[in-house]
Amino acid sequence: MIELDERARKLIGEPNLAHLATLMADGSPHVTPVWVDLEGDKVLVNTASGRVKDRNMRRDPRVALSLVSVSDPYERVSIRGRVVDIRNGEEADRHIDELAKKYMGVDVYPNRRPDEQRLIVEIEPESIY
Amino acid sequence: MIELDERARKLIGEPNLAHLATLMADGSPHVTPVWVDLEGDKVLVNTASGRVKDRNMRRDPRVALSLVSVSDPYERVSIRGRVVDIRNGEEADRHIDELAKKYMGVDVYPNRRPDEQRLIVEIEPESIY
């Protein structure tokens, strides 16, 4: 685990989409946009149980993230790291609402499906460029 | 190889950044922002020789791309595919200028380094969601 520099913290703190790469069962890459925030030096992603990226990260914890600032396309950061925990329950439900506040300016995540279980994915950064 | 649908063609046709995932030597993912355009149903990326993603794609051709519309964050596409060719020379130099036109509105790519060799990376899509 490494410490995130100020530039990475700033890009993650602002409502910039991140693109999360995970590994399919055959080892090939998969990449989709995600909302992110920070918990200390860990990057938190929120997803729903059973999605491709959830299954991928449980099989192989190695991931990568790429963020570009919406206000300045030259401000960008790429992080490689490892999933160290996946948490569910009320905490994950609160977290998706916090991300909806950050990214959409609303108090409650509006796209929640009644049958889905939200997950907080905790990522430890191992390299940044 | 599959055909790209209209939604994917539209997102790639507009000046939306793509995030390209490649595989490091140890099989872990790496993801960075890239400019893209289309050649028929193939996605073209332009990079410089010797970069991490260039070395990664020569070692393992499996890649993935994620695009989100700058104008509508709900418009998004994820593509998994395979690098089928990497071309250099004048054609690749012209291509980076074309991409600079698309993404920056300028005729000549302004960040060119005298010592770098530009490359066109040709990607055949294998799945889209």
Description of the structure:
The structure is a homodimer of 129-residue chains. Chain A has 129 residues and is an alpha+beta fold. Chain A has one domain (6-128): Pnp Oxidase, Chain A (Roll), CATH 2.30.110.10. Helix content of chain A is 24%, strand content 41%. The first copy, chain A, is built from 3 helices and 7 strands; from the N terminus they run H-E-E-E-E-H-E-E-H-E. Chain A has a 7-stranded antiparallel sheet. In chain A, a hairpin with a 7-residue loop joins strand 5 and strand 6. The longest helix of chain A is centred in the last third of the chain and has 15 residues, at 90-104. The model of chain A has no long low-confidence stretch (mean pLDDT 96). The interface between A and B is medium-sized, with 25 and 25 residues.
Largest two-chain interface:
A-B, 25 and 25 residues
Cα shape of chain A: globular
Indicate the CATH architecture of chain A: Roll
Number of helical regions of chain A: 3
Looking at the chains present, what oligomeric state does this protein adopt?
homodimer
Write down how many β-strands of chain A occur, each being a DSSP E stretch of 2 or more residues: 7
The structural domain count of chain A equals 1
State the end-to-end distance of chain A: 14 Å
What strand line-up does the widest sheet of chain A have?
2-1-5-6-7-4-3
Low-pLDDT stretches of chain A are: none
Q: Could you describe the largest sheet of chain A, including whether it forms a barrel?
A: 7 strands, antiparallel
